[in-house]
Amino acid sequence: MKRITFSLLFAIGICWGVYAQQKISAFEVDLKSKGASIAPDMWGLFFEDINFAADGGLYAEMIKNYSFEFPSPFMGWQRIQEQGAMGYHYTKPHLDESKNKKFLQMQRLNEEGVFGMSNAGFRGMAVKANANYRLTFMARIAKGENLSLKAQLAKGRNILADVNIEGLTRDWQEYEVMLTASETADQVNFKILLEGEGELDIDMISLFPEDTWKGRKRGLRKDIVQLLADMNPGFLRFPGGCIVEGFDLENRYQWKNTIGEMKDRGTMINRWNIEFAHRNAPDYFQSFGLGFFEYFQLAEDLGAEPLPILSCGLACQYNSGEIVPLDMLDEYVQDALDLIEFANGSVETAWGAKRAAMGHPEPFDLKYIGVGNENWGPQYIERADVFEKAIKSAYPEMIIVSTSGPSPDGHEFDYLWKELTARNAELIDEHYYKSPEWFLESARRYDNYDRNGPKVFAGEYAAHSTTEKDALKKNNWEAALSEAAFMTGLERNADIVRLASYAPLLAHVDGWQWAPDMIWFDNLGVYATPNYYVQKLFSTNPGTHTATITANGNTVAGEDGMYASATIDEKAKEIIFKIVNTNAEIRAFDIKFSGNVKGKNATWIELQSDQLDVAHSLKEPKKIAPEEKSVEIQKRVVKTELKPYSVNVFRVKL
Question: Which intervals hold domain Alpha-L-arabinofuranosidase C-terminal (predicted)?
Answer without folding.
Answer: 459-646
